[in-house]
Amino acid sequence: MSNIVIGISSGIAAFKILDLIRLLKKDGHSLHVMMTEKAQNIVSPKRIEEMTGYPVFINLFEDNFSYEQILKGKKIDHIEIAKKADIFIIAPATANTIARCACGIADDFITTSILATISPVLICPSMNDKMWYHPATQHNLKTLESYGYEIMTPASGSLACGTDGIGRLPDVKVIKKYIESILSRKKLLEGKRVLVTGGGTIEPIDDVRVITNRSSGKMGKALAEMAYRYGADVTFIHSKNTPNPPNRRVNTPISYLYIKQFSFSTSDELKIFILSQQEKSSTVSKR
Description:
Layout: E1 3-8, H1 17-26, E2 30-35, H2 45-52, H3 67-73, H4 77-84, E3 87-93, H5 95-103, H6 109-116, E4 121-125, H7 129-133, H8 135-146, E5 150-151, E6 155-158, E7 164-168, H9 172-185, E8 193-198, E9 203-204, E10 210-211, H10 218-229, E11 233-239, E12 260-264, H11 267-278, E13 283-286
Parallel strand pairs: 1-2, 1-3, 3-4, 4-5, 8-11, 8-13, 11-12
Antiparallel strand pairs: 6-7, 9-10
């Protein structure tokens, strides 16, 4: 079964996550839960610990924190949890938690852990309808989608604030079905080695002029990342002209996922990379 990490933020719907944990636990999954500090006002961490059999993480620095032990053991809780996750879920995801994740703010256990994971991420928003429709929230959701996170659309109905509209946490059975879909997806290309190329070659005419094309490699990157999320061992060979994602520094990997990456300029360089990798690959995709 799978290691499922759930981050609970302080939406009123947090109490419903107990039912989600119960359903997932019944299927044999290992549940690792973290909470924001304020979420403790809604759900008891001890009750969750009794259900999952694992400690609930809330604070980055516990009272007995010792940096000497960290340096000696080479293990940090939020990194270890992030590494073992087969899927990382935030439910309910409040507007505040969504905003902090979108901005890369890492000031609690959830937001720090999510920066360290390369597992699929599922965001389950829950908030007032006006907060949901606010341009800032919609902008933040689009930012999270650009990271490859999946966003569930909230349900509509009676809200905790007394109004009717969109913003309810989706039914836990619907969330569970979505989780199962993501987990099963990861097995579709399991054991396969996929080679993807992307971007245009650059052929020099002389010391100044070159022949090239406008292929950006963005489609290749998208295919490589999707193949990885479907469970494949992926190699991505991309043009040196392939642009880094927005706001990423130059000379950082094109993808932050565990994808082997090589860059080429000329067709001869591309040929060398392909010949060295294609015999190890089940599928070759050129974009």
